[in-house]
Each structure stands twice: as C-alpha cells, then as structure tokens.
Amino acid sequence: MSLAAAVFASGSGSNFQRLVEHSRSAPAGWRVALLVSDRPDAPVLERARAAGIPTAVIPVTGRDPDQLAAETRASLREVGADLVLLAGYLRLVPSGVVAAYRGRILNVHPALLPAFGGKGMFGQHVHRAVLASGVRITGATVHFVDERYDRGPILAQWPVPVIAGDTPATLAGRVLAVEHRIFPAAVDHLAARIAAANAADPESDRAPGRTPPPEGPWFTLAPDPAPDPGYFFAPEAEHE
After folding, report:
1. What are the angstrom distances between the C-alpha of 233 and each of 133, 145, 180?
2. What percent of the chain has pLDDT over 70?
3. Contact 231, 174 (CB under 8 A)
4. Which residues, other chains included, contact 228 with Cβ-Cβ below 8 Å and sequence gap of 6+?
5. Which residues contact 155 (CB under 8 A, 6 or more apart)?
6. E strand or H helix at 19, and its extent?
7. Active site residue ranges
C-alpha cells in the first residue's frame, strides 16, 4: 500500500502540481491524499480540486497554537497521512504537528540552506537576497522540518549558478525547475525508507506518522539522465 502524503501550500502550487503528477506517473510508493492551505483564496486549491484531491483550509492568523495543532492533526488523521510535504507553505508548522510527524515532514526551499533561510525568506525575497549578496551559486534544498524556519536536517540539495545579468525572476525560474526535480526524488527516497522500516515491523501498533524514519545516511542527487544544460547554464555569451 502506498503512503499517504498531505501537501501544505500557500500560493500558486506549481510544486504541488509536480508532486501530484510525479506520484501518479511513476511507482513512487506514495500518493497525494490531501492539500492543506492557510489561505482560502490560494490558487493551489483550484489545482487540487481539478486533480480530485481533497482540500482543507486551516487559517493560522490569530489562532491559539494548541487549537491550530489539534485541527491540523485531525485533518491529517482523516486521510491517514504518513507524510507532510511543504510546497510553498509560508507558515510555521505547529509544534504539536511537528512532534507527531517528526522525521516525516519535508520542505523545499529555493536556496542552499543554511544560507538565505529563516523567517521571511521565501519566494522573491530569497532571490533578491541572493543577488544582493554577490554569491555565484544558489540552488534548492529539501530538508526535514522542525520547530524553526528552515533549520531542520538537510536531506538533499542541488546547486544552480547565478549568471551575470540575472534578475530575481530569471533566477527564480531556474531554481524552480530544480525544485520540481529534487523534491519528488527526495520524497521517493524518504517514502522508500519508511516503507522498509514498516515492513520490518509489520505488527507495530504505532499510528501513522509516529514511527520514526530510519536513520541516515541520506543521499546526494545527481541528474540521471543528465538534463539539458540550459536548466542550469546560460550560453557562453551570457557568462562573458
């Protein structure tokens, strides 16, 4: 049986869409069972409805943290969620949810953490900060989620060069292309490790989401087959 994943998102949902497409087109060992958003007007909700995936809108602003955690966990239990995937979710996950799913919550971040992470570092804010810093390499990171923004253990990273003349929009486009590759691959890996752990302990009475994932080592992603170099590099003339 495939693992059930709940995806949390606040915006347009391109990473959500990619996760759905990947899980349905390959024997991934997991499926997207729920879309959770903090915004009732988030475009990602339409993507979920079009894909036939249940949705839950759970507002965050002004909420009691314990009540928020309880409502969130109830929604996850309703679909039997084994994994939680943050795909452009701009809120801190309640500590009660982190505790229940520790080691089973992944986030994709549009930079090479620990650089350019933390509260307020999302979307164009990240890419503006990267360009202002003068660094030559950025990228995408998939990491485990804990009680702090962007501080959990890193599972996978993929570098993307910063090219002379880049704008936040052009840089964001190249990084997003990498996010769409690295995030599904990382989820595949974690799901396989969890499934193996569950198979080794089939009589476990632990609830979904409570079984600790197997310990590392984790992995490094390499393109296979190699993507078009245009994913990462502009023509030579653009480097001059």
Report:
1. 20, 30, 17
2. 84
3. yes
4. none
5. 106, 142, 143, 144, 186, 189, 190, 218, 219
6. helix 14-25
7. 109
Distance CA 92, CA 86 (A): 10
**CA 71 – CA 90 distance, rounded (Å):** 18
Strands 55-57, 30-37: pairing is: parallel
Residue 22 CA to residue 131 CA, distance in Å, equals 31
β pairing state of 83-86 and 3-8: parallel
CA atoms within 13 A on the CB side of 185: 19
Mean of pLDDT values over 199-221: 53
Nearest 5°: phi and psi at 144?
Answer: -70, 150
pLDDT for position 230? 39
How far apart are the C-alpha atoms of 118 and 239, rounded to whole Å? Answer: 31
| Closest residue by Cα to residue 60 from 42, 43, 84 | 42
pLDDT at res. 204: 55
Q: Each residue of 142-173: pLDDT tens digit?
A: 999 999 999 999 999 999 999 999 999 999 99
The pLDDT of residue 130: 97
Q: Are 132 and 115 in contact (CB under 8 A)?
A: no
pLDDT for the residue 226: 39
Domains assigned to the chain: 3-239 (3.40.50.170)
Q: How far apart are CA 150 and CA 15, in angstroms?
A: 17
pLDDT at 28 over 90: no
Q: List phi, psi (to 5°) of 136.
A: -100, -15
